[in-house]
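Deliverable D4.2, example record:
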Amino acid sequence: MNSRQRVLCAFDHRQPDRVPAWCGASVEFWAKARRELGLDDEALRQRFGDDFRRVFARYAGPEIRLSPGATSVTPFGVQREGIGYGQPMSHPLAGARLEEIEAYHWPDPEWMDVGQIRGEAESYGGRYAVLGGDWSPFWHDLIDLLGMETMYLKMYDQPELIDAVLRRLVDYYAAVSRRIFDAAGEAIDVFFIGNDLGSQHGPLLSEAMFRRFLAPHFKRLVELGHDYGLRVMLHCCGGFAELLPALIEMGMDGVQAVQPSCRGMDLRELKARFGEKILFDGAIDSHHVLIKGTPEYVRRQTRAVLEIMKPGGGYVAGASHDCILEETPVENVLTMFDAIREFGGYDG
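Output generated by the structure prediction step:
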């Protein structure tokens, strides 16, 4: 069984030859691992045993100039500053009226170049599960454009404004992904999107508010992926167990970066309640185990997670955060992936 077959088997909630492995890493950790192990990108993925590969569209639109102090800018013109992705320097639609939202300088999906994606996806020869589509972080963009406090207030006072912003955001992301799938959908296996809906203490909005404002847009993206025969997987940090029933109802196939240290994310309970309905990806604690643990502790904890999550399929093993951070010891990450191979096999 190759990596692609293994992953698709897990998505079907059947037991493959072994639990598939997932490796998401920050740029800084990846550079450190390459340096310490003396490997190039593909050799490093193979050493970790990553069963996935990923392809991206490339920005080819008008030149974007960063403001002084800015380190990045979103597709919607929000300049950001600080470490990593940083924080927004302003909230352009915080005081906008409905007509100003419609007139805002929304990006053109044609600015994303998809010409190279098919070749990149096909270069893997069907050996790996290929992730594709736009990341589509529309919840984060909504917060950036309005500011979190303003956004929450408008959900109660002016819900039509929230609806208008979300519609324009998801119009853009859906159009970009449709272009990607038209160009290379047969060579892609998983439509991978990302929106962090949880904190350490639970969801960032109630189930009722999630169903009212966000669920229709998630469903729209799920249906888009399914129209092209793709599995759809959501990256979501934090505690979001209360939102899983809604995600399952809309047809979400998998959730990634399950964080067992967050409220409501007990692995035994998640597996018992939802393990036959949605694929879980992650669950090996990035903070208390991978960063702070010894290699032997990492090995024991990886084995313990596998014993809970692997029965019946529907599980991909990996760190509980999409990006393994630079401060994580490379030895611990190697130990985790070696333990996944050692303890992740299925009998027969």
